[in-house]
Amino acid sequence: MTESVGRDRSPTESVDVTVSVVGEDVGVDPSELSDDDLMRELHSLHRTRLDTLRHGSDPSLANHLRRTAELETEYLARHPGREVDPHRLRDGAGVE
Question: What is the pTM for the complete model shown?
Fold first, then answer.
């Protein structure tokens, strides 16, 4: 199921949001997403993370975890040599 939402957007903008259900293959395969779409989906998941953790049903949280893992795995596959900010490292950790 796909629906358009305009939250935090101008009245002329809309975003297609894919709603997934645990146990069903609903949603676009991450490998089929453009880089821009992948980043948009990741931003959306991370923006809604705390609310889903605190207030979502168990199936909703499970779906959120599954979809986050799928999208983050795809991101890492596309960007294996991503730039690591040295300020984000703990002492003793190195950048390879």
Answer: 0.65
